[in-house]
Amino acid sequence: MMPSEPEEDYIPWIQQYCELFGHDYFVQVSQDFIEDDFNLTGLSQQVPYYREALYTILDYQVETAEDHNNDPTNEPRGGSSSNSKRNPAELPNKALLAHSAELLYGLIHARYIVSKQGLTAMASKFERNDFGSCPRYFCDGMHLIPVGSTDVPGQETVRLFCPCCNDIYIPSSSRYLNIDGAFFGTTFPGLLVKMFPEIENQCRIRINKFSQNDFGLKLFGFKINELSATGPRMKWLRMHPKTEEEKQEYNSCEYNVPVSYLEDDDDMDEEDDDEEELDEEDDDDKTMASE
Ligand SMILES: [Zn+2]
């Protein structure tokens, strides 16, 4: 209807989306990234009205059910593209299309920020402290990194990861409480820390800055005995492994399933297999008997 009129105050969809209230964790995905089909592999199955959503993000004109209803002549807009000849029942309505476009952008965003270009963009946001600081005293204002607890959209909202205490926090402002965590994904924080060793360096400085003796509970300047009932009993929760031995112990606790468990599992699997074989034999017997 008015394709050329509003060009002066025309704002691209992506910029508009990233400037919305509560969307300040997002970076603007570059047009090149979106136009490369390789980067969008598999997304067409996850997003309803995928093609229309993609066109919306890229600022192409998309016909919606409303446009069709408001146009009495039903004349296709924008020439004779195959898109405008579609059955009006197949056209998305505006609200649905907006939702699809946001979902698609979020999923593309999660992929973009683990690419070189996106990582760099997010790193400068991290540097500017756009994601906020860790509330823990010993983390000394360490900058936080957005993270999703799952890569499946619609499950959980965005969380913030502190590379210093390795804890995950809920954003302090409610404006982020409807931002999908999957739009940042589970891979991003680990990759950011790996690609920018400076982040780990900042953590090391903080961990070394506070020696165990400087802080902790005190009464009139005297340290409370660690064995005391009112002593610092939860201190071990915040301790970092220092010697090789401690590190090994830590790794085996965090990441390894105890060996005895694994052995039990194997035994159980074997038993299951045996049972299945027996069942099959039983079945054979029955069929033979009935014949
Ligand atoms: Zn922290």
From TrEMBL:
Protein name: Casein kinase II subunit beta
SUPFAM superfamilies, sorted: Casein kinase II beta subunit
Gene3D superfamilies: 2.20.25.20, protein kinase ck2 holoenzyme, chain C, domain 1
One term of GO molecular function: protein serine/threonine kinase inhibitor activity
Subunit annotation: Tetramer of two alpha and two beta subunits.
InterPro entries, per database record: Casein_kin_II_reg-sub_N, Casein_kinase_II_beta-like, Casein_kinase_II_reg-sub
Record bears the keyword Transcription regulation: no
Record's signal peptide: none
Organism: Candida viswanathii
GO BP annotations, alphabetical order: regulation of transcription by RNA polymerase III
PROSITE patterns listed in its UniProt record: CK2_BETA
Function: Regulatory subunit of casein kinase II/CK2. As part of the kinase complex regulates the basal catalytic activity of the alpha subunit a constitutively active serine/threonine-protein kinase that phosphorylates a large number of substrates containing acidic residues C-terminal to the phosphorylated serine or threonine.
